[in-house]
Amino acid sequence: MIKRLIPDTIGTRTLLVLIVGLTVSHLASVALYSNDRTTALMMTGGEHTAERIATVTEIVGNAPESDRQRIVENADGAGLHVVRTAAPAVREGAGDEWQADALRRAFALHLDGETIRDFRLRLAAEDRADTGPPGRTDLLVSIPLGDGTWLNFSAPLASSDPLWSFRSVLSMAVMLIAVVLLSALVVRKMTAPIATFAQAAERLGTNVNAPPLPERGPAEVRQAARAFNRMQERIRRFVEDRTQMLAAIAHDLGTPITRLRLRAEFVEDEEQRQKMLADLEAMERMVASSLAFSRDESASEPHAIVDLGSLLQRVCDDIADAGHEVALAAGDRAVRFGCRPAALRRAFANLIDNAVKYGQRARVSLDEDDTGVSVTIDDEGPGIPDELRDEAFKAFRRLDASRSAEIGGTGLGLTVARTIVRAHGGDITLSNRAEGGL
Known about the structure:
Layout: H1 2-5, H2 10-62, H3 65-75, E1 81-85, H4 98-108, H5 113-118, E2 120-126, E3 136-144, E4 150-157, H6 166-206, H7 219-264, H8 270-295, E5 304-307, H9 308-321, E6 325-329, E7 336-339, H10 341-359, E8 361-369, E9 372-379, H11 401-407, H12 413-423
Parallel strand pairs: 6-8
Antiparallel strand pairs: 1-4, 2-3, 3-4, 5-7, 8-9
């Protein structure tokens, strides 16, 4: 479920890592800051309280016995509660907090040596609503007087705001918003070259003569772009070398075929002469097709926006004029498509021509949806076995040699058609119809 909600992209994953990491570090920083601030406030408040307690103790200790209780009652207030008792009210244990030890040292600065040895101090956390705000810490002190009585003090220490206060939540929200915005910009900038590489690779699959990638950006991006451009250049040279070799072979075969045709004319046996001429004619067709295929005349044809319905209609009309049965269902809506018109017309002509030759008649339909444009060509022939469908697209591969000899052809029709369609970013698939045909 989480994988479906979160886009599976490098940018999203990087953004999530940044957000989670910074959130955890921010929470840890806030917790440390809150603890340090609480300690600082307690120490500051403890210093101030120590001065007040020392002053009250000194005044009471130096006052006559008749005035001591009155001084204690006057010193008792909301910020410092004072009680005089016969026994100490504070019980000290071995596990006093380090804050208590620090406050004890602060009291030692204001009390004489005899009192230092005997006074008692403890920190008490108050969680009851009737004694103050939740989490308040009270400082409890019991100091002996010279007459054997004890002065007992209770004073609240200042505390910081809780960790999940409005201020801390607001601080985290501002941090997250800033991190998301800045990280989104940075991640988008960092992942942009990856999208550019993907587009370049897709473009290379349809056009090896596509312009090279711009070599700019960080060193790693420039290095990758340079490697991609070198790969594209090597692929381009490979294709050109193979094409030129095929064109040269097909061209060189033209001269001996012409000589053989001339010599065949001198053969006295009429039957043998006609067979030889038929074979030479088939060889000439194969050479001409090979030359056209190797030259790839459509490669230099400029792109244009055409109505695919109109283009298919012209192809179907030409084949119908040759005496074949062809039907087109393209609808009334124009399907505009950017292509090399002559090349695409040649590809459709090859496909429809195969349909009428091997399947008696052809039914052509044109459909367009959000995924692209599809052209379906149905015939009523014998179809093609599943294991031979890939073989049908191989150059000079003729699945039915006996029938192909009667119908003609060189075995390049489907090869040329698929090459052209793939150069336009599409593909051709073959499948047998349930009611018969391909």
